[in-house]
């Protein structure tokens, strides 16, 4: 191993047990899921007691090498094979087995036979044959897998390594970073980042990590707000169990907006332009500390259990911290986007179900859509309304977290616990209320069966709709329009206005000219969330005088949420040649996955398979793009630059 640069890192974590559900004895509210169709593993045959990861990272050859140790106990007699999920980018060198505490021949670590079989386009199955002596009731054994990545980054001197872990240590002499997680977490929340990172403490349990060039900006935007938000969340939902809440800002090319890794939230640095969107994104990730991280959906087909509850919790926090009007405004903006997506998909599209079904081979990320968040939020809001008092529902959520903490659940777990917590609701058969049946919420297509009362946001949404109505009149009244000052609005008001204008496209050339004269220069001074929406209006209405603004925007912004919507609009109209020109000028600075996506848009190459009735481009709604796109898997890293390697040159997997 001498050829590899250090440091190494060690992540130890306990198991997240997935409770086995039996479907016997009557039908429940949601279908019991004994198999995770997005996994090839036979995880129901084993209990994972401990997980150890030791890695060495090498930037020079863009390689990670190391090993992981799985301490397992067989749950079923006679099982002879351990099946794990793996990825084609891993080159496996050897797999060993050991029974701790055994003596004699069984204490030797024999090499095991294994094979790698195709599974899906996003992963493979690793089938490991187990010796007969290993499988004994209640006896632990250890599997060690040694491997090298065939495409990935590594760490030179001076680079800081961070991980989603509750404890960390660094040996300067050995250049070894060590991390441990004392709480059980699902595998998708094990995250690592390396780069030229510095930090500033922003509270008693929080610090901001970022490249030096943006650290001051990040700290000034967050200030002491994070501790305030954590305190509000704890008052609502109980203690924050993860200890630290740190944030690392990632380069603009990072393919997702934010990721709720325990103890260390990842956020794309582009979002720093908008204070309101940054606020919502951070609070949403904080809410995941309870909903998603502490209690996790057992299968990807019920992601609303994480995202719908986190969205509800996020809005409870913003209501307590910033008032009901602001929360209602943000909700109106998101529900507008939900109904816009519904119009595109149709009311009978199966992707609009909360318990969405997908076939083997389908990447779960293709199901990340606004229904998971906003329809899920509406269902949780409906449950809150049934209680008659939001504070009573807060008490229920605290009890729910305490009951299921550090475990995975299905919808039936949540709803059974809800009806048990409120026996009077169970006695009145609210689960079968006509038109609002729980089963219909879960398995019915279309928009939410009901939405919460958002009239408290009228003081903020009213002026937006009034201005939209003025622009819809023929001809628009310039004197009346002049009474509205967009610079006095917050970002959510402005983007709601532009989204509703976008819904009215196509607009006449005269109206576009008047809009440009009124707002174009003013919008140039605003954040990217605002500018992209104006530029989409420009593209969809073929307003050529503002075309240079599109070029400048795409040269500056290289994140998925700001590029994909514009490229889709450019290529669906008469500006495809212009789009291709800008792409060739900027492609070297794009993330590899984003490059491939834009090439598919530009040259109409085949996209990845998607479930029947779904769309190939759906988004993590924490992203604020008006045209949602998916949470992506990361591809090979770009070639390293010469000299000092900044974080923006490193592709990091969440």
Automatic annotation (TrEMBL):
Residues 610-654 are annotated as: Disordered. It holds the Pfam family Leuk-A4-hydro_C. The keyword Repeat does not apply. Residues 610-626 have a biased composition (Polar residues). Binds 1 zinc ion per subunit. Residues 459-602 form the Peptidase M1 leukotriene A4 hydrolase/aminopeptidase C-terminal domain. One of its GO terms (molecular function) is metalloaminopeptidase activity. The keyword Zinc applies. CDD domains: M1_LTA4H (cd09599). Keywords: Hydrolase, Metal-binding, Metalloprotease, Protease, Zinc. Belongs to the peptidase M1 family. This is Arginyl aminopeptidase like 1. It comes from Salmo trutta (Brown trout).
């Amino acid at each position: 191993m001498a050829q590899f640069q250090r440091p190494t890192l060690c992540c130890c974590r306990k198991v997240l047990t997935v409770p086995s559900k039996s479907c016997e004895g009557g039908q429940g509210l949601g279908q019991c899921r004994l198999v995770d169709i997005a996994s090839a593993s036979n995880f129901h045959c084993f209990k994972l007691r401990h997980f150890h990861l030791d890695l060495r990272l090498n930037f020079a050859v863009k390689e990670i090498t190391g090993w992981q140790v799985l301490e397992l106990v067989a749950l079923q007699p006679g099982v002879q094979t351990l099946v794990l999920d793996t990825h084609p980018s891993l080159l496996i060198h050897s797999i060993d087995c050991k029974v701790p505490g055994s003596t004699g021949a069984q204490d030797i670590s024999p090499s095991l036979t294994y094979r790698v079989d195709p599974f899906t386009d996003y992963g493979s199955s690793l089938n490991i044959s187990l010796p007969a002596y290993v499988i004994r009731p209640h006896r632990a054994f250890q599997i060690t897998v040694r491997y090298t990545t065939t495409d990935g980054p590594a760490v030179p001197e001076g680079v800081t390594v961070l991980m989603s872990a509750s404890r960390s240590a660094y040996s300067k002499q050995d250049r070894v970073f060590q991390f441990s997680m004392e709480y059980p977490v699902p595998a998708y929340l094990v995250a690592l980042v390396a780069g030229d990172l510095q930090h500033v403490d922003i509270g008693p349990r929080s610090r901001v990590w970022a490249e030096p060039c943006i650290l001051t900006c990040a700290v000034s935007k967050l200030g002491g707000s994070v501790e305030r938000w954590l305190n509000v969340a704890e008052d609502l939902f109980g203690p924050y169990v993860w200890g630290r809440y740190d944030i690392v800002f990632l380069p603009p090319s990072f393919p997702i907006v934010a990721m709720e890794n325990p103890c260390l939230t990842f956020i794309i640095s582009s979002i720093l332009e908008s204070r309101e969107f940054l606020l919502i994104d951070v609070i949403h990730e904080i809410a995941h500390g309870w909903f998603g991280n502490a209690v996790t959906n057992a299968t990807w087909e019920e992601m609303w259990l994480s995202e719908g509850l986190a969205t509800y919790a996020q809005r409870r926090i913003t209501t307590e911290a910033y008032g009901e009007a602001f929360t209602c405004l943000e909700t109106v903006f998101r529900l507008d986007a939900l109904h816009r997506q519904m119009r595109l998909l149709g009311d009978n599209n199966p992707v609009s179900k909360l318990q969405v079904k997908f076939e083997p081979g389908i990447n779960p990320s293709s199901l990340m859509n606004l229904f998971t968040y906003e329809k899920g939020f509406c269902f949780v809001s409906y449950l809150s309304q049934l209680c008659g008092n939001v504070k009573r529902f807060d008490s229920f959520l605290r009890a729910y977290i305490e009951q299921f903490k550090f475990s995975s659940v299905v919808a039936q777990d949540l709803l059974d616990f809800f009806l048990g917590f409120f026996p009077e609701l169970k006695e009145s058969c609210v689960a079968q209320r006509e038109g609002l049946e729980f089963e219909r919420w879960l398995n019915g297509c279309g928009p939410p069966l009901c939405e919460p009362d958002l009239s408290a946001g009228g003081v903020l949404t009213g002026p937006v709709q009034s201005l939209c109505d003025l622009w819809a009149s023929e001809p628009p009244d310039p004197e009346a329009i002049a009474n509205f000052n967009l610079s006095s609005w917050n970002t959510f008001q402005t983007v709601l206005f532009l989204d509703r204008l976008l819904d009215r496209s196509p607009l006449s050339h005269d109206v576009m000219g008047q809009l440009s004269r009124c707002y174009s220069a003013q919008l140039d001074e605003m954040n990217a969330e605002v500018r992209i929406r104006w530029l989409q209006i420009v593209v969809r209405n073929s307003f050529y005088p503002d075309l240079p603004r599109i070029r400048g925007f795409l040269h500056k912004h290289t994140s998925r949420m700001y590029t994909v919507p514009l490229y889709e609009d450019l290529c669906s109209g008469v500006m495809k040649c212009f789009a291709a020109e800008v792409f060739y000028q900027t492609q070297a600075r794009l993330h590899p996955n984003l490059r491939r996506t834009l090439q598919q848009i530009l040259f109409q190459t085949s996209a990845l398979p998607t479930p029947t009735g779904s769309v190939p481009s759906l988004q993590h709604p924490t992203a604020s793009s008006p045209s949602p796109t998916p949470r992506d898997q990361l591809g090979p890293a770009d070639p390293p630059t010469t000299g000092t390697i900044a974080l923006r040159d490193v592709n990091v997997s969440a």
